Amino acid sequence: MRRSRLRHLGLAGLLVLGGLTAAGTLPASAADASSTSSSASSDREPASAGLLDAMQRDFGLSRAEAEDRLAAERDATGLEPVARRAAGTAFGGSWFDADAGELTVALTSDAAPSTVQAVRATGAQVRTVEHSARQLDAAKARVDRLDAPAGVSSWRVDHSANTVVVDVVKSERADNDVQNFLERAREAGPVTVRSVPSAPRTFAAGTVGGDPYYTGNVRCSIGFSVHGGFVTAGHCGRAGAGVSGWDRSYIGTFQGSSFPDNDYAWVSVGSGWWTVPVVLGWGTVSDQLVRGSNVAPVGASICRSGSTTHWHCGTVLAHNETVNYSDGSVVHQLTKTSVCAEPGDSGGSFISGDQAQGVTSGGWGNCSSGGETWFQPVNEILNRYGLTLHTA
């Protein structure tokens, strides 16, 4: 799960609004994303403590063993191009042998003794193989031209096995289309088939309410998923602006945006991202499903999810309020709440039960001393752009 990463991003970008009067409120806007990055140190250690800790945890190494392995990998990385040149046309591939801590270079059986000696002189270990790297690459290129059915998950050159390995989903191994693909793949060259438990998927994320997104150096929060994208605050970006997600991968583009007078926008998504009818609970509560957008009355409880201060609740204080922000921006038809917010929470989700209410616009105060926050009603945004809320 990525929530610990999100929590870090949110808190690192935190800015305090401070206590302001109602007439001097500010858009919750935006935290400057540049505040989440730190300057690199010129005298940085070769390996960070975090990297060494991760290697100890994931590889079962001691700290000294982790340091030794990193040093051996650095040596192998520098050695590989030298050994490759020494191997010439007999080169069958190379790989780092973690157990031995050395680079291994494959050479075809017809390699001249002088070639073998030259490769060993570089410090690499030598293994004799049947097929050259060039032959394996050509075989894979031929497989690339085949149309693969869904049951075939991937294929690649494996130099240590001296073959092209084709991964097939175990449950689809007997499928006729899979068998036809494998038959044609074997005609392309040396192929080994491996079973895998499931098909691969991308690890880009769904657009989840409360998650952070970035426009340039500005961080805001996703409001609600709609079919084709998500809605958020207008002051977070103008139409045509590109948007990246919590992991800094590209999400999509602002398709419409209005601020001031209104404070709403919608972003189209693509590039492996998809819409999800969920609002983050940030571990305070379970993540909340969105089932509709019925308007909560004044006095009803309401909660907000945002990428800076996460999950907070309060009550609806007023509908259709006109707000005059301290920068002179006037926004109409906002709903007032007793929920706190801070910079970076802008655009995030207001939800009552399982009903979407709106996207965070701005407010006064903070989540330490309290305050009030306004949101742009979600139904107005849906009607303005002809969008359909993604519901469970």
UniProtKB/TrEMBL annotation:
InterPro entries: Pept_S1_alpha_lytic, Pept_S1A_streptogrisin, Peptidase_S1_PA, Peptidase_S1_PA_chymotrypsin, Streptogrisin_prodomain. Disulfide bonds join 220-236, 303-313, 340-367. GO terms for cellular component: extracellular region. GO terms for biological process: proteolysis. Residues 1-30 form the signal peptide. GO terms for molecular function: serine-type endopeptidase activity. The keyword Disulfide bond applies. Keywords: Disulfide bond, Hydrolase, Protease, Serine protease, Signal, Zymogen. It comes from the Bacteria. It holds the Pfam family Pro_Al_protease. The active site is at 235 (charge relay system), 263 (charge relay system), 346 (charge relay system). Residues 131-175 form the Peptidase S1A alpha-lytic prodomain domain. Belongs to the peptidase S1 family. This is S1 family peptidase. It comes from Streptomyces coelicoflavus.
